[in-house]
């Protein structure tokens, strides 16, 4: 008798309507745009921590913070260069941009910025970097984190940089690139 009950359960499972795979995936995870900003901030920092935590001591000393800000300033200089000239297809620039991002990440510590007032500037920058362009599968933050420009040069990465340059030329202060430069300058100028 137990076998017949078991067979009925199996048969009912087999005849249950099968939902398309896409529908299941969309129900399983909310999109980045549906998440609250606090949740995106947490996910971003957990992803960064997962990649870089083994590098850091438990507490970041003042010298390491100064070095991190120097590396971030170099990355900022690359963004400023992009705002002045379309270097999106210049392999030397792509290598430099990616290398400077990697250098910054080597010294970046979310634990340190969480203790400072200026965390809102760097947090907004990081969230925007990992959400640009909106609605796309891969963000500029993704390409930079995957060393695009150093070990590989994907066309979408170059196109993203070109679009940032073009938007800056057209909209100046309303552009994403202007906002990033402004946020990083405010972060670096804060004490």
Could you describe the 3D structure shown?
The chain is an all-alpha fold and 191 residues long. The protein is built from 10 helices and no strands. The radius of gyration is 22 Å and the shape is globular.
Give the radius of gyration: 22 Å
Distance between the termini: 76 Å
Order of helices and strands: HHHHHHHHHH
Mean pLDDT: 76
Shape: globular
Question: Beta-sheet strand percentage?
Answer: under 5%
List keywords for this structure.
single chain; mainly alpha; about 190 residues; about 70% helix; disordered N terminus; 10 helices
Task: Describe, in short, the structure shown.
Helices cover 68% and strands 0% of the residues.
Write the layout of secondary structure elements.
Layout: H1 2-15, H2 21-28, H3 37-52, H4 62-84, H5 91-107, H6 110-113, H7 119-129, H8 140-145, H9 155-171, H10 176-189
């Amino acid at each position: 008798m137990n076998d017949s009950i078991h067979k009925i359960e199996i048969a009912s499972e087999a005849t249950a309507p099968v939902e398309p795979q896409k529908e299941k995936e969309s129900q399983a995870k909310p999109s980045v745009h549906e998440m609250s900003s606090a949740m995106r901030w947490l996910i971003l920092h957990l992803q960064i921590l997962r990649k870089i935590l083994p590098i850091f001591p438990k507490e970041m000393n003042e010298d390491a913070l100064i070095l991190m800000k120097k590396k971030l300033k170099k990355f900022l200089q690359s963004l400023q260069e992009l705002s002045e000239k379309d270097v999106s297809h210049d392999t030397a620039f792509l290598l430099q941009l990616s290398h400077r991002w990697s250098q910054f990440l080597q010294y970046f510590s979310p634990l340190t910025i969480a203790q400072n007032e200026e965390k809102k500037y760097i947090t907004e920058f990081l969230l925007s970097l990992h959400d640009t362009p909106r609605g796309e599968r891969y963000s500029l933050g993704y390409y930079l984190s995957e060393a695009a420009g150093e070990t590989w040069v994907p066309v979408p990465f170059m196109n993203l940089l070109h679009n940032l340059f073009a938007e800056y030329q057209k909209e100046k202060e309303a552009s994403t690139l202007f906002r990033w430069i402004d946020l990083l300058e405010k972060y670096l100028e804060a004490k």
